[in-house]
């Protein structure tokens, strides 16, 4: 590996932890990030000449700390306040013996519920994952200035309202952990959603969400829902190469080329899920991962275990009584008991759900019942409500397939 | 760190019998609460603005919303989590809302 490649690998793997440590030592998020940036720049300067140090993580942490100390001294910060930064041992360990606590502290602070969900996502991507404001802005389709402002405001609130920099105490931990998982899941879905142009960036978001979920699992090994989320994202993401055709159009699950799924990733996800379920503390992410696994382990679409999926959606509904879950359950029931049974469940939902998913599902069930005219009207409605070009194109094709009374 | 808890309530809503009382809350926050008071109804408020040399008065609160500030408490907490915990236990948080605002200086 070249020194440059080694530094960028370290940047991905270690940057978050080093920033987390520097924030703890200095209490200053901007200073921490700048000094860590400087440390990586120095590594690029020194390592080709002096060789890569034996423990590069420790070298980077120490360099960043010295830089922070330097800047604080120059800014005239009193000696007392420098105490903790100075007190930090010169020879910092670079293995995960307790120092992962800093990273966990950082993740929990970025995901604090006193920040807006948007701010939590942005801050996690910026501070933990090390994406630039410009990259995050592009991923979320907002101007860079808007994203920069969002990040500045979030950090200001952390400082001014004194949001604590810590892993929450036991009585808050379950709900705060659920909050962190929610941020990571949103991040993954943002990347997974069928979005036009920035395809590469979206894949990057999914990869980042998976990486962060992995980190969380390593830091919170006793939390089966964290494992469930990791399993869910791995299994969903395994389909990334088969979800779109060459023209960039959406390929529905039952028509995807299953040989193009990432089977190693499915296997990893399923193994993780099995281990999580054995703990006997199921939750929404574990159940969703189990549903995803049913799809992912079917060799052909017609081998899908729909009765099991319908059952799992029933379980999920108990944990998350949301209209979207009811809609998904109706789809599964339609596969088991026929489209009429599914349609009855969908029509019970009536206006409980906005957006294109309900009419798209109704349209599909009506089509299978041979009610073409009604199916067409529902597809049209779904097309008009679809949020992305890719989905609009997909639904428009389904509308056209049944125009002029032509039946397939 | 000092925080102002602004207690906001829609005064057409009556608290449910059996809810914790303000006395219980006051006992709980003894030592943390520095100051506070109930305020008269927003109907008795006068809003003052000065534009140029002219002093403009409005009868009523600065924002005509359903929920109005009915009181405030100043608390001294270690961090926002502690302030949130205290605010969430205020009896009015059950049917109204409590805005937690940090002071400019600790």
From TrEMBL, chain A:
InterPro entries listed in its UniProt record: DUF6596, RNA_pol_sigma-70_dom, RNA_pol_sigma70_r2, RNA_pol_sigma70_r4_t2, RNA_pol_sigma_r2, RNA_pol_sigma_r3/r4-like, TPR-like_helical_dom_sf, WH-like_DNA-bd_sf
All copies of domain RNA polymerase sigma-70 region, residue ranges: 10-75
An annotated Gene Ontology molecular function: sigma factor activity
Keyword Transcription regulation: yes
SUPFAM superfamilies for this protein: Sigma2 domain of RNA polymerase sigma factors, Sigma3 and sigma4 domains of RNA polymerase sigma factors
Membrane spanning residue stretches: none
Domain DUF6596: 176-276
Gene Ontology biological process terms, A to Z: DNA-templated transcription initiation
Keyword terms: Sigma factor, Transcription, Transcription regulation
Pfam families hit by this protein: DUF6596, Sigma70_r2, Sigma70_r4_2
Domain RNA polymerase sigma factor 70 region 4 type span(s) in chain numbering: 107-158
UniProt family annotation: Belongs to the sigma-70 factor family. ECF subfamily.
Classification via PANTHER family: BLL6612 PROTEIN, BLL6612 PROTEIN-RELATED
Protein name listed in UniProt: RNA polymerase sigma-70 factor (ECF subfamily)
Species the sequence originates in: Saccharothrix saharensis
Organism taxonomic ancestry: Bacteria, Bacillati, Actinomycetota, Actinomycetes, Pseudonocardiales
From TrEMBL, chain B:
Domain YCII-related positions: 39-102
Organism domain of life: Bacteria
Gene3D superfamilies linked: Dimeric alpha+beta barrel (3.30.70.1060)
Pfam family for this entry, one: YCII
Recorded family membership: Belongs to the YciI family.
Name recorded for this polypeptide: YCII-related domain-containing protein
């Amino acid at each position: 590996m070249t020194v440059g490649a080694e530094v960028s690998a370290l940047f991905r793997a270690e940057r978050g932890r080093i920033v987390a440590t520097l924030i703890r030592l200095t209490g200053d998020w901007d200073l921490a990030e700048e000094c860590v940036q400087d440390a990586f720049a120095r590594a690029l300067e020194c390592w080709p000449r002096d060789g890569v140090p034996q423990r590069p993580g420790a070298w980077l942490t120490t360099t960043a700390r010295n830089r922070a100390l330097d800047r604080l001294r120059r800014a005239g910060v009193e000696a007392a306040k420098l105490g903790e930064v100075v007190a930090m041992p010169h020879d910092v360990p670079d293995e995960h013996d307790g120092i992962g606590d800093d990273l966990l502290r950082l993740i929990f602070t970025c995901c604090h519920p006193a920040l807006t969900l948007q701010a939590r996502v942005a801050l996690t991507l910026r501070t933990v994952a090390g994406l630039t404001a410009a990259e995050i802005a592009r991923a979320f389709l907002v101007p860079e200035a808007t994203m920069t402002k969002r990040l500045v405001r979030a950090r200001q609130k952390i400082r001014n309202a004194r949001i604590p920099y810590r892993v929450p105490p036991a009585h808050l931990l379950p709900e705060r952990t659920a909050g962190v998982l929610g941020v990571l899941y949103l991040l993954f879905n943002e990347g997974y959603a069928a979005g036009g142009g920035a395809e590469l960036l979206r894949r990057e978001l999914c990869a980042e969400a998976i990486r962060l979920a992995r980190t969380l699992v390593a830091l919170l090994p006793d939390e089966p829902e964290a494992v469930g989320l990791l399993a869910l994202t791995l299994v969903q993401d395994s389909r990334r190469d088969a979800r779109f055709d060459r023209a960039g159009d959406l390929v529905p699950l039952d028509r995807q080329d299953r040989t193009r799924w990432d089977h190693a990733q499915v296997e990893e996800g399923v193994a993780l899920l099995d281990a999580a379920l054995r703990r006997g503390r199921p939750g929404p992410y574990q159940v969703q991962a189990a549903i995803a696994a049913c799809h992912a382990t079917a060799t052909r679409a017609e081998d899908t275990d729909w009765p099991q999926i319908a059952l799992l959606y029933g379980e999920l509904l108990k944990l998350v009584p949301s209209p979207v879950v009811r809609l998904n359950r109706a789809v599964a029931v339609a596969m088991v008991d026929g489209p009429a049974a599914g349609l009855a469940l969908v029509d019970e939902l009536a206006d409980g759900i906005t957006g294109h998913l309900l009419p798209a599902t109704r349209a599909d069930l009506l089509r299978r019942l041979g009610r073409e005219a009604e199916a067409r009207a529902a597809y049209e409605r779904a097309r008009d409500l679809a949020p992305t070009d890719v989905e609009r194109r997909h639904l428009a094709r389904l509308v056209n397939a049944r125009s002029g009374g032509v039946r397939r | 760190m000092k925080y102002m808890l602004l207690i906001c309530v829609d005064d057409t809503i009556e608290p449910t019998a059996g809810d914790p009382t303000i006395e219980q809350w006051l006992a709980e926050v003894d030592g943390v609460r520095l100051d506070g008071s109930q305020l008269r109804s927003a109907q008795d408020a006068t809003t003052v603005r000065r534009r140029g040399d002219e002093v403009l008065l409005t009868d009523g609160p600065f924002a005509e919303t359903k929920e109005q500030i009915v009181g405030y408490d100043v608390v001294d907490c270690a961090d926002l989590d502690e302030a949130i915990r205290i605010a969430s236990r205020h009896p009015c948080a059950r049917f109204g809302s409590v805005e937690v605002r940090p002071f400019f200086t600790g």
